[in-house]
Amino acid sequence: MNAGNSPLDNPSVQRVQTALAAAGSGAGVVALSETARTAQDAADSVGCELGAIVKSLIFRVEGRAVLALVAGDRSCNTKVLPMVLELPGKCKRADADLVRAATGFAIGGVAPLGHPRPLPTAIDASLGRFDVIYAAAGHPYCVFPTNLEELTRLTNGRLSDDVSEPLK
User: Fold this and answer.
1) In sequence order, what are the residues at sequence separation of 6 or more whose Cβ sits closer than 8 angstroms to the Cβ of residue 31?
2) Number of structural domains in the chain
3) Would the pTM count as exceeding 0.90?
């Protein structure tokens, strides 16, 4: 890629970098040579375990967008998610339009921060198994490194041991 086409120049990526800096994070967005569109792609591109990838999953609870940050080797327990967030109602996966409206990002590059307004956020405590975890940064070829403590602070999320379960 030539410098003019770097994904780091993408406005969505710039929004993530700005949000990281504004929150006092020293993390920098990293451009990958291979896609990070899926958790497995990201793990392969970064060279880390699948579980060290943070999946940003948007759901709808009673018409409201919510965010679940789940380890790459786990799935979100959608029956528990509303309880973790103390919201009434059932949980359904959000469609692409709600994801874009709630986060400003397209599916495949949804970052855990830099949204138009904060989202109720649940965080999979199993991410604490890793010293460094990697989250999407607004583009399918970009991630940023962080750790569970910082991710919790950046997103004002609620840590939960119950919000995820092993992949089937």
Assistant:
1) 6, 7, 8, 141, 142
2) 1
3) yes
Query: Residue 102: which H helix or E strand, with range?
Result: helix 96-103
Beta strand pairing call for 121-124 and 158-160: parallel
Q: What is the pLDDT of residues 133-144, one digit of tens each?
A: 999 999 999 999
**Quick check: 43 pLDDT over 70?**
yes
Structural domain for 124, as ranges? 3-166
Give bridge partners of residue 122 from the DSSP assignment.
68, 158
The one-letter amino acid code at 159 reads: L
Two tokens, residue 95: 């469609």
Radius of gyration of the chain (CA): 15
Q: Give CA torsion, residues 55, 116, 20, 3, to 10 deg.
A: 90
CATH of the domain at 98: 3.90.960.10
C-alpha closest to that of 16 among 151, 120, 110: 110
d(CA 88, CA 64): 11
In this predicted structure, the answer to whether residue 3 has a pLDDT above a threshold of 70 is no
23-61 burial code (b ≥16 CB/10 A, e <16): eebebebbbbeeebbebebbbbbbebebbbbbbbbbbbb
- Residue 1: what pLDDT? 43
* Helix or strand run (H / E) with residue 16: helix 11-22
Q: How confident is the model at residue 86 (pLDDT cuts 50, 70, 90)?
A: very high
